[in-house]
Amino acid sequence: MNTTLGRGPVDSATRRRAVLRRTPLGAVALAVAAVAAWVAFLADDTPAGPATQDPGQFLVTVLDAVTFAGLLFVAASGFTLIFGLMRTVNMAHGSLFLLAAYIAIRVQESMVGQSRNIEPGHVGMLDWLVPMLAGAGVAAVAGLVIQQLFLQWNEGQELRQALMTLALTVVLADQMLREFGGLAQTMVWPGTITHFLSVQGERYPVTRLFILGVAVLVGVLLWLWLTRTGTGMVIRAGVDDRQMVRGLGINIKLVFAVTFLVGSFLAGVGGVLGASFAGAAPGTDGNWLLNSLVVVIIGGLGSLRGAAAGSLLYGTVVAFSPAYLPSEYSYYAIIMTFVLLALVLAIRPYGLFGRPA
Amino acid sequence: MTARDLLTRSNLLGAALVVVLLVLPSLATAYFVNFVMTQTFILGLAAATIVFLAKYGGMISLAQFLLFGVAGFMFGNAAQETGARGLNLGWHPWAAVVFALAVTTAAAFVLGALASRSTGLYFLMLTMVYAVIGYYVFAQIVEISGPGGLTSIQRPDLLGPPVRLYYAGLGLSVLAYVGFRAVGRTAFGLALQGVRDDPVRMASLGFNVPLHRALAFTLAGFAAGAGGLLNVWWNGQIDPASIAIGPTLILLIIAVIGGISSFEGAWLGAFVYVLIFTYLRDLPLIDRVGITEARFNTVIGVIVLVIMMLSPEGLTGIARRLRRRLRPPARTGPAPSTGPPLPVRTTEKELGVTRR
Q: Which residues form the signal peptide (chain A) (predicted)?
């Protein structure tokens, strides 16, 4: 009798706490349902219109979201790979992105033999692939040099490393402005993929699907590398316990260097895709550092699955908010990114797949 | 604390420095006072809020410059009566000051509460995202920022002459320096430092860890807002580009140059930055080596890189180390009153964050 009486308040307190813990989750579920209802039925005064009335626009927006998520994933996967193993937040990631873009544009110009107004028809697939590899290769080497010069000897001092790479960002941005000028430049897609598909009566560019294809390829290759090769195994072990890996006699310095090389290469690939998709200009570096940060904060630092999930969520918000906000409020689209961050952090402070650093 | 305890060498030095700064307007040129020194105080005040969060809270914030800008925009919108840009509410200047500080503090509380469960690198990244999103908010919502920014913002009549703005900057800086240090000794400040060192233990002792972080962020936001008001009065205008990622990084760099866990360092860093910014072009032969004003960011970046390579504690850390090396242990015997040194457990600090 006594015990049952005694357990009463404890039970109710536990229950109340459990309810409190579930409140953010419920709020998020409610918000998602409300947004879905809005997009499907209510979005009348918006650029796109309700999805039930205009399925074509809806489908195009979904495609926009997924393809942009692909680009986000390519850029953010390198960032999260480097962090996962080395606990280094490479704030120069955006600079490497922009550097690769500029180099690729230069190489393409010299391959085509024209410096401006290049017609996509004059660009063969090789005229795009070779500059892409060149740009990403330069970014990879630059990243490796940064790691060897500035990050290798102060391993473990995470904030010092973050601040050093931030300083590098300032220097690199200034030097790129000097070298490549302040005007926006674009990389030209090869003529073979500059077509349009017809999606429910809407024209949709094939190039965006190409970006998605590259992203899927990158994701699959990364996954195979990390799960099926010896290096990948060491990297995964290093993510879990660096000291143990070192204790087993594995040269982890070499593994660090390789990881940084690959991570910077991925930043470079993202940069070339981004330059073909939206151009490269001063400020692109900061933009893409922001994009990578948002993706990994949502998805969880150091997790490849998190990078994919974060890219999809962020890509969805970026594509949907200008299309489905009422027309006079489409300026406020940027705030939706903030709302997304707030919702995710309210449930999981370390991101969807992250764990405490 | 008796008057005698206050008579330490550093306190005397600080008081002497303040006296020198008080009479500075009659010693130095108007340009040095109204341009170099006033800007030093404004940026130093903003950088001191970063130091406060890093030193006591272990949180390196990149959002301080955003809050700095929020105060400026709010003042501009509330105080301006006419003009093509902004809301033109036309309030009394001091009402606008209160409004701007209230909005800034509220924004700081919301942002701080949202970030209160993340620490270290996560906090740095999250506040960086705040800074960039805040920039886009002001850049895209032109109702509150006016296309191209708010211009010809008048300061209150009380601060009319430029030299009064200098004194306002000096006063607020001294207040912030003394105030932040005093906060570090209050119950709240001590709990905050406990939260920095061991959040789990503090939580189990019954302290509300996220609340302490959020309140510290709010206090820092309030001080940054005061700096932002000075800034908008000094500039007379504010535009979204002035709170973009570039200036945001510069403010962190100022805090880092001086040493991110020392309050003196904030103003020292600001002074060094403003000196470089102002006088670099006057150095002889400087353009021969390819350094012009356009390459200014490279110079600043390289300086920060070198400082960070030498010492993560910035200029104050380097100075402390030099002093230690120049003056080997001067004490010949144990100090008479204290006896053998107490076994104090010291923790290694890296950039204001405890390393284990």
A: none
Q: Do B308 and A164 touch (CB under 8 A)?
A: yes
Query: How many structural domains are present in chain A?
Result: 1
Count of H helices and E strands in chain B?
16, 2
The model carries a pTM of: 0.83
The answer to whether A113 touches A185, Cβ cutoff 8 Å, is no
Spell out a b/e string for B46-82, using b for 16 or more CB atoms within 10 Å of the CB, else e: bbbbbbbbbbbbbbbbbbbbbbbbbbbbbbbbbbbee
Nearest C-alpha in A relative to B352 = A159
If DSSP codes are grouped into helix, strand and coil, which group holds residue B112? helix
Query: How far is Cα B207 from Cα A118, in angstroms, rounded to an integer?
Result: 64
Q: What size, in residues, is chain A?
A: 357
Confidence label for A356 from pLDDT (cuts 50, 70 and 90): low
Domains of chain B: 27-283+290-327+349-354 (1.10.3470)
Alpha carbons B235 and B247: distance in angstroms, whole number: 15
Residues comprising chain B, all counted: 356
Please state the φ and ψ torsions of residue A203, each to the nearest 5 degrees. Answer: -80, 135
**Residue contact A159–B114, C-beta within 8 A:** no
Per-residue confidence (pLDDT) for residue B348, from 0 to 100: 43
Residue B156 carries which DSSP code?
Answer: P
Q: Which residue has the higher pLDDT, A6 or B240?
A: B240
Tokens representing B167 are 């004194």
Phi, psi at residue B2, to the nearest 5°?
-85, 170
What letter represents residue A93's amino acid? H
**Looking at the domain assignment, is residue A5 inside a domain?**
no
Distance, in Å, from the CA atom of B43 to the CA atom of A336, rounded to the nearest integer, reads 31
Q: How many Å from the N-terminal Cα to the C-terminal Cα in chain B?
A: 34
- ∠ CA A155-A158-A159, nearest 5°, is 135
Residue A167 falls within a domain, yes or no?
yes
Query: Directed axis angle between helix B187-197 and helix B209-235, to 10°?
Result: 110
CB A168 within 8 A of CB A96: no
DSSP H helical ranges for chain B? 3-6, 9-27, 30-31, 38-57, 64-79, 93-115, 120-140, 142-145, 162-183, 187-197, 199-204, 209-235, 245-258, 263-279, 296-310, 314-326
Q: Where are the alpha helices (DSSP H) in B162-244?
A: 162-183, 187-197, 199-204, 209-235
Residue A31 resides in a domain: no
Task: Give which of B36, B259, B278, B134 is closest to A337, Cα–Cα.
Answer: B134
Could you tell me which residue, B5 or B323, shows the higher pLDDT?
Answer: B323
Contact A142, A264 (CB under 8 A): yes
Nearest CA among B37, B30, B48, B42 for reference residue B230: B42
pLDDT for B293? 61
Q: Which residues from A are below 8 Å from B when comparing CB atoms?
A: 87, 89, 150, 157-160, 162-164, 166-171, 173-175, 178, 286, 289-290, 293-294, 296-297, 301, 331-335, 337-338, 341-342, 345-346, 349-350, 357
Average pLDDT, chain B: 82
Q: Which residues of A touch B117 (CB under 8 A)?
A: 345, 349
Beta bridge partners of B353: B350
Q: What is the DSSP letter of B160?
A: -
In a mutagenesis test of the B interface, which of A88, A145, A170, A328 is the best target, namely the one with the most B β-carbons within 10 Å? A170
In a domain, A287, yes or no: yes
Domain containing A327: what range?
A: 61-347
Sign of CA dihedral B270, B96, B239, A297: positive
Chain A positions touching B60 (Cβ under 8 A) are: 159
How far apart (Å, rounded) are the C-alpha atoms in residues A135 and A131? 6
Give the CA count within 13 Å in the CB-facing half-sphere of A306.
26
What does the block give as tokens for A277? 């998709």
Residue B145: closest CA among B102, B92, B100, B84: B84
